[in-house]
Specification:
Blueprint: H1 12-19, H2 29-36, H3 40-47, H4 51-62, E1 74-78, H5 84-92, E2 96-101, H6 104-113, E3 120-123, E4 140-149, H7 157-165, E5 166-177, H8 178-183, H9 186-195, E6 201-209, E7 223-230
Parallel strand pairs: 1-2, 1-4, 2-3, 4-5
Antiparallel strand pairs: 5-7, 6-7
Length: 231
């Protein structure tokens, strides 16, 4: 598949590729992203997908709550895709970054395009806390997730995987469309976990996603999003 340029103006070729990004569900999500991995960044960065950058910035801002030096902080990026969060974190000086994704194609693209950024890449289908690997439990200081709380992606079970992944006092840093907080019940579940004493809100920000688009293309349109830090 020919790689597209995400630094150029939005072309008809871009638009046709973008229209492919809404045609999937949980039954074929791995195959969907395997097919789209080579042009993932060309599409999302061109559209204005700021979530990975926001998650990295929030991690860099709040990691001092852990009481550790930056190069000692263990980070795992769930649904890492082509490794954008990892790249931004590495640019900030984080060095122990693990990426997890269900798509082998995405992981291959991640390793090829960002060599030396991740200490480990793991192929794993998320959203199954009952069978979440023991090797990942209670292991990380920070868990990030910039693109998995989304349409046709993961339900509230992934929040339980956040908690399983983190060490005591660890940080969960994630982003989602504002509308999904109510549409998919994410917001209610997040508040329930806080009420139960499982985590507390540290910071919340609001930003615009896909703000580089002047028109609706497939499922892509300007929309409000939020990013959160919980401890």
């Amino acid at each position: 598949m020919q790689k597209l340029d995400f630094t150029s103006e939005l072309t008809e070729t871009h638009k046709k590729e973008m229209e492919k990004h809404g045609n999937f569900n949980q039954d074929n999500i791995k195959e969907h992203y395997d097919e789209l991995c080579s042009n993932y960044e060309a599409i999302y960065l061109r559209a204005g997908f700021h979530d990975p950058q926001k998650c990295a910035e929030l991690t860099n801002e709040c990691f001092t709550l852990l009481g550790k030096d930056k190069d000692q902080v263990k980070v795992v990026d769930l649904g890492c895709g082509t490794g954008l969060v990892g790249k931004y974190l590495h640019d900030f000086g984080f060095r122990d970054i693990v990426g997890i994704d269900a798509s082998k194609g995405m992981l291959t693209e991640c390793e090829a395009s960002k060599p030396g950024v991740h200490s480990e890449l793991i192929e794993l289908f998320l959203g199954k806390p009952d069978t979440y690997p023991e090797t990942l439990r209670d292991r990380f200081d920070v868990v990030t997730a910039s693109g998995i709380l989304a349409d046709n992606h993961l339900d509230n079970s992934v929040f339980e995987e956040f908690l399983l992944t983190l060490k005591q006092g660890g940080l969960a840093v994630f982003a989602t469309r504002t509308q999904y907080l109510t549409e998919y019940g994410y917001g209610e579940y997040m508040k329930r976990l806080e009420t139960e004493g499982k985590w507390k809100l540290v910071k919340e920000i609001t930003f615009n996603r896909y703000d580089q688009l002047e028109e609706v293309v497939g499922r892509f349109k300007k929309t409000e999003a939020k990013a959160f830090v919980y401890q």
